[in-house]
Every structure is written in C-alpha cells, then in structure tokens.
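#help-structures
NK: newbie question, is this the right format to request a structure? protein is Phospholipid scramblase
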Amino acid sequence: MIRSIPIKQLTGYHNSLTFLSKRTLKTSSSLQYARFINNSTRITKEISPDELRRLQQAQEQAKARAFQYEQSHSYPPPPQPSYSFTLPENKNGIITPNDPIYDILKEPTLVIERQIEFMNLFLGFEQANRYIIMNATGEVIGSMQEKDVGLAKIIGRQFFRLHRPFDIDVFDKYGQLALTIKRPFSFINSHIKAYLPGYDEFDDLMFECVGESVQSWHLWRRRYNLFKLEDEQLDEYEQFGMVDSPFLSFDFPIRNAEGKIMASVDRNWVGLGRELFTDTGVYILRFDPASFEGVSTHYGEEVSSQGVTLDQRAIILSCFTSIDFDYFSRHSRTSGGMFSFGSYE
C-alpha cells in the first residue's frame, strides 16, 4: 500500500538529530540514506576538461547575444546537443508543454550562473540573488531573480542572513513568469516550495504548488529530502528523492528509492581567482541519463536509466536555490567584505 507523507509530519525532524537517525520516511518504497564507501569527504572532481572547455566557449558565445527577445532580430538556430533524450511521463503532474517553464525544464542539462554582486563583494552587503539559466550548448533560455521589494526585505536580508525568507521568480527567455520559488523564515532547516503560476477563470494570477525541498539537519553531512505534491486537498506529499552529500561536498547527487542517482546538482568552480574575488558560481543540473555522459567515471553505474519528470525537475530546481544559499552564498561562509578570503571553500 502506497503511503504518502502529509506535510505536517515533516516538522518532526526539524530540530532533533536523534529523531532523524531513528526515523525512516515511508513512500512507495523506503528511501535509505545514501552512503559513500569510506564515508568521508570526497575530493572535489572537476567537470571533464572537454566538457568544461565546450561550456566556457558556449558561455562566451551566449553572453555576446542579447538576453531579451526582440522580434526584429533573427539569430541563427543554436546548435543542438549531440545526444538524444526523452522526457518521462509526468504522472499526476501539473506542468504541461503549454507552461512557460516547460521550455526550460525539458532540457536534459541546465547550466546556471549566479551573477556578480558588487556591494556584497566590496561591502559585505547582501544583495538579491540573480541567475542566468543556459542549456548544455550555452544558449540563454531563462533567468532567475530574487524579489527585492521594500526596505524591510533589504534590512532583513542583512540581519537574518541564512535564516531569511526569500521569493525567487523564474522567467523564460521571453521574460514570462514561469515558476516561483518561496522559502519562509527558518531557524534551522530550510524549507522551500516550487509554485507554478497560472490564471483562474477571472484572469487573476494564481499559484499551484508543485512540491518542496526540505533540508534535513545533520552535524556535518548535507542532506535534503525532495517531495512532490500528490493530493492538494489532503495536503499529501510523496518523497521521490534525497540528497546526502559529505562535508564540504561540491556535488549533490539525488538518489531515488533504489539508491540510484536520478539527477544531480554539481557546483563547478570555474576560475579560482574569479570565485575568490566575486560572488559568482556556476552549477550544472543533470536531469537525464544522457546528461551524465563525460562524467561516467565519476558516477559510474549508479546512474538510473530512468529520467526525471517535469514536476520533479521543478522541485530539483528549487532545491538548487536552497543549496546555493545554504552552502555557497557569502553569508553561508562569512559576514562578507572583500577582506574575508580565508572563509572560502
């Protein structure tokens, strides 16, 4: 019998490590914590040189093009990835090809770059996060922008730091609102939800919850549980994946109930000097088995042959923002300012 997890049951493991060690989340099957053989910090493995070189070349080409869509401009069609992929059936999902987010999530690989925050760099002043979304060829296909409305939010961002709430809007390449990611204030564990925008019969903007990512506290490991909303009326969520990465890890594989890697969020440190003197970062989100080509020696046979559905990809995208903020933002390492180099990982 399949058992879905009501969201109210999730609050029980927010504050107790002991409780976490004893509790097993029940879904259609039991998701066990992923383990590494030596259970120790793994040395960061860079993206393969060929893949990194292609990505850097594609980024330069993409940034040379204007981000905003103009009908008067006609660009040559971007090169297509050399591999084929298929989208799994979005069973009991709400995202369709008619939604603006579809053109982003249909990609087997997303490359996301956080933009430079100059006031954060020189003054340690936390600014709203901004991201550019690219596909595997470096074509800009969207953007992400943290809402920065009102003096209270600006002040709260400086004082609450890692505990602060935030809303991030995801836009497609035409500037249409495609997804909204919301995180409330949290004392310990971050709890983030993905919402699909739409319109009701009165043409009023409304949001439907797709699912959520919940950080699971651990003394040194980096853990997240990913849930998809199965029944909105009963507020029932079913877990489809979990992240359990070692201390100081830069790779966050997402494992399914069988322990196979279904997707991953990888932090790629491009240019050590640039990472040291700015607050930018590049992430690679892999959704399809074909997107793991080139890093097979890293993940091996642990990659699942099944892909990730559209709804699951939206939740993984929201989890990425939490990972970036919890472990790789300026406030996750230090109080900021350009003289705090020693805190960088």
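mod (FA): yep, format's fine, and the tokens are attached above. The helical segments are 17-22, 49-64, 102-105, 118-123, 151-160, 272-277, 296-299, 310-328.
NK: thank you!
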